[in-house]
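Methods: holo model generation. Sequences were used as deposited, without trimming of termini or removal of tags, and paired with ligand SMILES retrieved from the corresponding compound records. Each pair was processed once, and we did not select among multiple samples. The sequence and zinc ion SMILES for this entry were:
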Amino acid sequence: MGQKIEQDLQRFRKLVRGKVKSDLSKYISRGEMIGKKGKDYVSIPLPSINLPQFRYGKKNSGGVGVGPGQPGQPLTQPQDGEGEPQAGDSPGGHILEVDLTMEELADIFGEELALPRIEPRGKKNVVTEKDKYTSIRSVGPESLRHFKRTFKRALQRQISAGSYDPLAPTVIPVREDKRYRAWKEVPKPDSVACVIYMMDVSGSMTDEQKEIVRIESFWIDTWIKRHYQGVETVYIIHDATAQEVDEHTFYNTRESGGTKISSAYELCNKIIDSRYPPSQWNVYAFHFSDGDNWGDDVPKCTELLSNTIIPKLNLFGYGQVESPYGSGEFYDHVHELVGDHENVVVSRIPDREAILGSIKEFLKTGR
Amino acid sequence: MSLGFYNTHLPPHLRVLKDEIEGFARDFGLDFYETIFEVVDADDLNEIAAYGGFPTRYPHWSFGMQYEELKKGYEYGLSKIYEMVINNDPCYAYLMRCNHTVDQKLVMAHVYGHCDFFKNNAYFVHTTRKMMDEIANHAARIRHFVERFGEDEVESFMDRCMSIDDLIDIHSVAIKRRDDHPKYDFSPQATSEDSAEENTAPRFKAKPYMADYINPRGALKSEDEENKKATTARAAKFPEHPEKDVLLFLIEHAPMKNWQRDMLSIIRDEAYYFYPQGQTKILNEGWASFWHSTIMTQKVLDPSEVIDYADHHSGTMATSGRRLNPYKVGIELLRDVERRWNMGQFGAEWENCDDMDKKRTWDKKLGLGRQKIFEVRKIHSDITFIDTFLTPEFCKEYNLFSFNYQDPTKNYVIESREFQKVKQRLLFSLTNFGKPWIYVIDGNHRNRGELLLRHEHQGVDLKVDEARDVLANLQYIWSRPVHLETIGDGQSTVLSFDGTDHTQQATGGSDDANRKTAAKAR
Ligand SMILES: [Zn+2]
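and the model returned the structure below.
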């Protein structure tokens, strides 16, 4: 790859990051990124990045196609992802999708929300890295190719091989020359984290509220994963009893029973002790509910949090979604703990618009 | 030209093939400039393709975007660029290093078809044949601007220029371009390149033309005043006729800085260079495919390669989904023309014959087919090609249909298989590249030097949100308010942007009302 395209590509990527950043609150409240997530990246539709031109709208438009079918038959989307079945110069066109690595997304997110970087706690030998792209690797995504380093390697190789002619200085990088920007990895044992999500799935929680939780946890995940070598996630659902489930079940379960929050906290505590000892793990716990709980259960909950769970955690976040059914009083009980514990954050999330502010509350502690 | 960092030499076995295929192409009567093949890696080919075939093109993020798209397509196995040929003297063509020999042969044969087309087709007559040099020169000028005025400033102006790069007059192939010498002489005002007030067109200060009628002439008029009036009358109507070359109008009349004017004229030059390729996509690809198929099957193909060849050839010809494949339509229509002229199935006698049996066995053994398709490649564009040679039989045999958008269901639906309907839709999608017709109507609109454009409505409304963004770009260049007359939902409308606000104003009666009046009059 030539140096020219490298530069144009970097300009483009910069533009993409800028667009995503300026539209971030929209993406967050719509939950748009989540469905587009691949293993290490998200695909973001960015129609607005194309330069505007005078063109026709869809109404009354048409074209010519080939193949079978009777007049009146709709031209359904072809299955193999070829876009709309129409001549290339017909209206519509395809919408540009841009891939961002999860790291890039997290950085944009952190910048836009002005979040402090997380300082993994406890260990003496922890090195926190504040600069981006500080290290260089020989493998990586092309979008992170470091042109100068690549060029330098190629030059060194050509000089030592005698193929460099100073009178006609052309440098041709080959695969071994390529160097990529990378994030410096934080030293091993301290850099692992566990995030435990707890959610009330009793009858009073609606689908919209679960969607809010899903969006919140997506961004919390994205941010926390950016700071650790490895992150494990645990999902606990509860009504009057609690159980550990997978991610899909977490968001798709609805129970009709009553609510006993302490059941979730007990399970959470058990899981920490058995699998994620805080001496080795940075443990995060987030609990989402509509604030409804059995009255008798409250003292047990605050007792468990204060004396047992919170001391083991980097951060405990309680997010209360607003439900037409719930009393919402649990919020006040957790809120009382904030004064005594600096690693406790509470936040109300009445609707999607509130998600951004809520995430910011949770993550601004830098823990 | 220097392709710098690509190592592009043709290896010996390909050089032998090249000479052989070039010889066959000439024997068949193809006529082309010297053709230079460059061998490049897939990644380099994606890069070159992103630059529209010109590795030395000026820097712009959109090329980076193209590159990423091509690269993704290639890596996911969705798309692969097989061929790229540059209209230049000499012609440049790129071969992908990793291709099999049979593919290389096919691509070479295909390339000679394109090279012949570039050299001989009427729509390419006015394109420069030294574009490799010109593009490099353009890039050097733009890099110079970047150094002087900064990357962000130059890039954002480039974005605006590229947003209007289709506002040229594609019919100017027949009408001579006003600036066959693209160098503008700015020397008279070019005292300070950056002074903001330079080039403020003096004509904006002209008095209203109508004043002559409103104010009766005094008995005593100085000669000087008379002269002034004459000038005013001329200036009041500009352009004299609606101007489709919006870019040229802006270059000549918009108060830009010199570097901006130069950049816009670079964009325009490149747009004029590229547009014949868009105008002849079906015919050009059809012609090249016709020749790769002819040369391969009749001359070059080794028996052991037949299957690979058939694979690749049918791959190129495959219709993806129900989209029209220009290669396929082009080659089949050319073959149809060759067959018809060989058998004498044309002319008044053929057209007027109603006897279907007679028509079915009609063969006058004229053998005029080859000669005819050479003529077709010389004088036709896609529009005239389709208009002249598309037949009802062809439409039927190749299963063509027209489709249209249904507002209530928000879906495209098969509209018709009727020949006239299909042909009309096809011609519409090819006309002006399927883009709206935009003209400059008045450069001194409302006597305030505002710019008035008109969208010549032909049945389909503009995409309004995007049109507003384009207006904003035009306004920036024009520096005074700009207006666009169009029709939306049957209602005459003017979209305006004054630098701060977008407005939309209904004008006159609706289309329906007009139609009613017209009906009454009859
Ligand atoms: Zn071709």
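Chain A touches chain B through 62 residues (CB under 8 Å).
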